Each structure stands twice: as structure tokens, then as C-alpha cells.
Amino acid sequence: MVIVIASFICTSLVLLPRGGRGVVAKYALELKPLSKVSLTTYTTDTAETDSFPLITASGLRLDSANPKKGRVIAISRDLQKLFSFGDKVKLSNAGKFNGIWFIHDLMNKKWKNKIDILINPDETQMSLEGVVISKI
User: Fold this and answer.
1) Is residue 4 helix, strand or coil?
2) Do residues 62 and 54 touch, judged by C-beta distance below 8 A?
3) What CATH number has the domain bearing residue 42?
4) Tens digits of per-residue pLDDT, 44-65?
5) Which domain holds residue 95?
6) What is the CA radius of gyration of the chain?
7) Is the pLDDT of residue 9 over 50?
């Protein structure tokens, strides 16, 4: 389910000098897209990635000793309509994964409306439903 909150343009000030011409000042308020997604985790194991597990789809090189340090998210390809590589996003309703993350990877074509959080190999894999992701 994708929830998109529209942009608002507010007219806030009209100045009418003696010549009768007015100046209208407009201020844009833009609210970023929100999406409810499924969340899973992945590691840099080649069974879960491609043959270059320390290089993300965006070209980001990961720290081999601590891959999760980069706070990397892989998104399903359908979410590319809303997010791009390098986007800073906030996760909510994601338990210990709540907070700021960065989109640097893509998931296999078979997945829809899903994100994958990169964790270290010694951590326990998990999955969650109903996670809210919003662009910052």
C-alpha cells in the first residue's frame, strides 16, 4: 500500500501598491511519500547477493569488517518509483531498525513492496510487516 501526500501551494500575501498591481507570494509545502512495506534482512554472503557482495547496486563499497555500518537498504524494484540510490529515509514501526537509513541496493525482480536491511553475518535474520518508510 502506498500513501502519497500531495504538495500544497499556499497563497499567503498580496501586496497592492498605489499603482493597483499586486504581488502574490507563494510558498510551497512539500510532504514526502510514505510507504508501508515488508522488511527482511540480508548479509554480504554470496548466497544472498551477487558475486560482488561488498559492492552495492549503487556502487557503494561496504566495509568487510562491519557491512551494516553504512546503514544500507535494498529496495524492491517497484519502489524505484518513489526512491532513488542515495536517498536518506526514515523507518518507523521497524523495531530495532527504526531510524535513518540510506538506499544503496536493489532486490531481485521477484520481490514487490519490500525492503532488505543489510546486517552483519553474525546477526540473526528477521522479517517484519507494516514498516513505514519515508524519504527525508
Assistant:
1) coil
2) yes
3) 2.40.40.10
4) 999 999 999 999 999 999 999 9
5) 35-135
6) 20
7) no
Domain assignment of residue 110, yes or no: yes
| Total domains, the chain | 1
**Within a domain: residue 69?**
yes
Q: Are strands 2-3 and 8-15 parallel, antiparallel or unpaired?
A: unpaired
Taking the C-alpha atoms of residue 99 and residue 97, their distance in angstroms, rounded to an integer, is 6
Give per-residue burial for 87-116: e unless 16+ CB within 10 Å, then b.
bebbbeebeebeeebbbbbbbeeebeebbb
Helix, strand, coil shares of the chain as percentages rounded to 5? 10, 45, 50
Instruction: Give residue-wise pLDDT tens across range 23-46.
Output: 555 555 555 657 899 999 999 999
Is 3 a member of any domain? no
Instruction: Write down the mean pLDDT value for the chain.
Output: 84
Per the domain annotation, does 126 fall within a domain? yes
The number of angstroms, rounded, from the C-alpha of 124 to the middle of its chain's C-alpha atoms is: 23
